[in-house]
Amino acid sequence: MASFYKDDYISAEFLNPNVIKVTFSEITPDEVMFNNYLHFLEDIYSKKIKFILVYDSCKSKYLPSDMRVKLGLWFKKNNEIVKNYNYHTVFIINSIMIRLVLNGIFLVQKPVYMYDIVSNLEEAQKIVDIKLKTI
């Protein structure tokens, strides 16, 4: 499918009307790119449709701390809309170390959405197929 949003940092596409796949590039975003990403999030949540979000982070680098804080604040500010419309999120992270770090973060600060963390697209697709039956 064709991307519905693309810049140097992310590419987003609908895998079907209720599944959005976001693929992060290998670059570290600058402030403008990261703000564009936050605007992208605002846009998809403003549609007010339940969706499954697939984050392909296999190429991405670890975000600088100021951007992680900014992202956390965005999710805190938009907690209710995220809870209402993000049906499930699947994180694709091929690094076992980063998967462990993310699991640790989520133990301390649980997201308001259900999620899975997997190592490849095939695992993600299996989860998406199951979740689509109950959305």
Give keywords:
135 residues; alpha/beta; Transcription Regulator spoIIAA; 5 helices; 6 strands
Q: Biggest sheet: strands side by side, in what order?
A: 1-2-3-4-5-6
In total, how many beta strands?
A: 6
Count of DSSP helices?
5
Mean pLDDT: 94
Number of domains: 1
> What shape does the CA trace take?
globular
Query: In percent terms, what proportion of residues is strand?
Result: 25-35%
Low-confidence segments: none
Name the helix and strand elements from N-terminus to C-terminus, one letter apiece: EEEHEHHEHEH
Oligomeric state of this protein: single chain
Range of helix content: 40-55%
Classified by CATH, the class is Alpha Beta
CATH superfamily: STAS domain
Task: Please characterize this protein's 3D structure.
It is a single chain. With 135 residues, the chain is of the alpha/beta class. Strand 3 (19-24), helix 1 and strand 4 (51-56) form a beta-alpha-beta unit. It has a six-stranded mixed β-sheet, with helices on both faces. 45% of the residues lie in helices and 26% in strands. It contains five helices and six strands; from the N terminus they run E-E-E-H-E-H-H-E-H-E-H.
